[in-house]
Amino acid sequence: MNKDQVRDALEKIARRHIAENMDLWPGIESRLKKRYALTVKPRFKLSSSLALALVTLLLASTAAYAYYRFLGSDAGLEGANQQDLITGMDVTTLPTVYSTPPLATPIARWYEESSAPPATAIAEEAMQNVKVILNWAYADESRVAVRFTISGLNLPEGLDYGYGAMGTFSLRDLNGNVLGQDGFSTAAENREDGSKVITANYYGRINADLTPVLALQMDIRVGGFDAPYLDPNSKSTTPEMRNIPLMGSTQFVFDVPVQKGIEVEVNQTVEANSVSMTLKHMTVNRSHTELVMCFDTPTMQDWQLWKASLRIGDSPEYPYSQAANAITGGVQGRGDLHDRERCAELGFDAPHDGKETVIEVFVPYLITPVPEVISQERVARANAELESLGIAFEYLPEKRDVVAVKRPAGSEDWEVYPVIWEALSDRFSGPWIFRVIVKP
After folding, report:
1. Residue 127 sits in which domain range?
2. 251 has pLDDT over 70
3. N or C: which end of the chain has fewer CB within 10 A?
């Protein structure tokens, strides 16, 4: 059974428990009110048998520093930083080296399923001077963000070592609750000195009144993964795999204050093109705003809400930054066509100063998933639409994939390919525009 069959089977089982005439909003409201409290307990001492470098950071809840000016493209964290809400740390540890590599169950990788040769090991000397630096942390009622740096890397030029290739990391509170239940995202940067800077976002609901300070534990394992390598002196365009040795693990234990957000029951309905959409609820935090949106599908197609932007006061427009989550019976993205009402939760990494303001939400259109069988007419229509953007593509039916054959100079894959796939979808035009006054 392939992954699509497994997914379909699980969704059918889930839908058995959802009546077609079920009132959706009470369930949503209940979920929003169940903002969990991560109770802070006294710190515990870890057994030395864990072989982890343990650093305990006792930081006052008011300790925040604004010298981390580069926060990537996350406007919400940049805004929090400008308000001196980022808790600076800059604590360095040396990963505890495993004298004997821990036992692990081998997993199948994509390149092992083909005829590609096994990965070539990188000399362990390349990892001997590795250090892990916990740079800063931030928390509000919608997410926790942590930045750390892995330095001292001496890896060959041409190695594409993303954050996953450098190891694994996890964040939990001191009661063992794993963070990131509502979503997880990362941003990685390769510095000129070879170090890797990683910012990890863990989305989830936290009640600042019940938990004003989070006591957290972050475990970081360095190495132990394979990464693609392309010799810069070779004319070959096919990468080979290199194994990054397993260096060891580091653990940080630290406190971070939780910034309180603003809850707004909105229930504002707007109609466009004979379709009603309702902004039910809004949660406004210093770095992240979440919306619950419900709408009636215009036809029996699987219409979804995947495109929206948000403006806070006179700010620029911020696109939604966390994929719409299906949270109710008319399940967005799961093919349940019996219920014409769909509800979705959208997140925006947008800064808010905690003061009274007007928030505007703009939804340009609804969209359907790309069909399994893509016709030449659909491909031609999409290419005609993309022509004004300087983008053209070819569709590969045997792989159900697309290849960009024309793109704007300097554009990246992550900028071009989502636009192509969106052009291959069907859209139902709005727009739906909401304006909400938010008061502390």
Report:
1. 48-100+110-258
2. yes
3. N
